[in-house]
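fold-stage: in
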Amino acid sequence: MNITNEQTPLQKKLDRIAEGIGKLGLLVAILTFIAIVISTLIKTIQDDKKDFDMTFVTAICNGLVIAITVVVVAVPEGLPLAVTISLAFSVAQMQKEENLVRKLQSSETMGNANEICTDKTGTLTQNKMTVQSAYLQDKILDGEVNPDVMQLQSAATIVQAVIMNCSAFIEPKRNNDGQITGEGDVTTGNVTEVGLINYLVKAGADAKA
């Protein structure tokens, strides 16, 4: 809750544009007012019928109003609204493509992306680990289950090393009420250790004993 929202690159650019336009509008307004004042002075001095009366003051006030109008018109008040509407339209288009966007800034971020690197996370898997290959005694045993493991001289040592040093265990299958179903055994615990034990069991090791 204490984290402050930083401006996006587009918002920073819009602020710089608005500031630049505002400064330019102010400069033009000042020059316009000066031009009107000088023009009014020259006309008043050259015309003998005119004097520095209320007519002169009214002309100066009209010049000031014109200058203020230039400043007001120069400020791009509708620019942030137009950008927000554009981002909202982009979000609506993405939603039609079954892509839900929670923040309007996401459209801006994706618009600035040239390359996207992504990775498959655990939310897309079944959280089940299986041994794909084993390297034992200078041999690579490919496949999920390879009975040749038990034929190696170090098989007994490997089996004991895996089983005795893991927290996973084999138990009878149970239903939601905790009662044994009689449908065989199931290995539970750490998914990596479960994968190793299942590999040894299918290869012929008596892991349950």
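fold-stage: in (second)
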Amino acid sequence: MMRAGVRWITPALALAGLAACEVGPDYERPAAPVPASFKEIDGWKPTQPQDAASGSTWWTIYKDPLLDDLEKQIDISNQTLKASEAAFRQASALVSEARAAFFPTVAVDASAQRSGIGSGGKGAHATYKSQFNVAGDLSWEIDVWGRIRREVEASYASAEASAADLAAARLSAQSVLATDYLDLRINDQLRRLLDETADADQKSLEITQNRYNQGTAAKSDVAQALAQVEGVRALLINVGVQRAQLEHAIAVLVGKPPADFSIEPTPLTLGVPVVPPGVPSTLLERRPDIAASERAAASANAEIGVAIAAYYPSITLSASYGFLSSAIQNLFRASNAVWSVGPQLAETVFDAGLRSAQVAAARASYDQTIANYRQTVLAAFQQVEDELAALRILERQAEVQDRAVKASEEAEALILNQYKAGTVAYTSVITAQTVSLGNKQTALSILQSRLDASVVLIEALGGGWTAANLPSHDEIREGSSPPDTGAPSP
């Protein structure tokens, strides 16, 4: 009996050893349009070119300890990242699920049954029969055509795409936090500016009131001065709305209820760092969203092989060994042993075009991922060019605006002195004060735009992430979450 079983098993194992072919196309990374250099960097020499120190996270270039502390809380408490991390663990589990098909499935079953013939009533004779069974079953699909290997390949690529999605979500949250924080600091600076303006306008009101009391100024001058003071105070109150909203947004990003979170106002000491963009071709390896799109294409390519494998017969090796007896005490005697072993071949001969449609759908899905990948690459280059242009142009605008601020401050002081001397009307003072405040607000707005653009540029360049940070196959099978890496690659 055992020799007969071996005669059946040997050819099946030989077939398993020959199962080295994989139907379907082998994956090659899609080509994507890559420029030789960034257009908007030509001829521009940033006043503060700066990169994060080696081994440091990217936000340290802003030299703000509180921002550094807040960014570290993103991975711990942000619920969006927790959801992305759970999605990665799910993708890792699907890899293990696909790999399980490489191995045999073994099952054990036992049963006890008693049956009878006849009712067993008065005058009748009933016959009873007992049957006991214990058996082990083995089933193993031999992956001759590579269907299982393609499924595992697709699962690995999907898990890598999920890891890249997690990195992209982390970078996005870090970028939003940095932007909100910098905007909040600009808001604090605007509040200080309005406080200083309100104090200066109050002094102008007192001067005007004194001149009115002395009979050298009209009542309308006092009214205008008071209107100027109250207008600035109204602006000052409105500033609090945006600050509160920014503070609440930061609280949610670090996973805290807004009621339990606050940031004290501090003086603005931030510069505008500009990260060198590097060579355009390296962008394909530095952005997690590009890596996610490329890995999605690899997964879709493997799915074509899975669909094509359905054209070929499936070969399954089955074996069973157990004992069958009518008496439980004799169950495990050699004479009661029952067994079976042998391969099974199954082939679909007619499916009304089902497999052809599945292959066509898989190829179309792959073509879609290729288009998405190339579009992601184009959008990445656009984002870098946009922020380079913004930083270049805003830097020039800031230089001009700084001169405008100095000129308006000087004009305001001169016109106020002229008013005190009685040589100009108070409307000239109001106009000078309005122009001066407007120029200072514009300068702050430009600074805010420059800081925001610097954050978006860092995000557009990948924030220090590289494709080398994708988890290995061993790490994927372990299901360990990819680590945070806001530091530049060496």
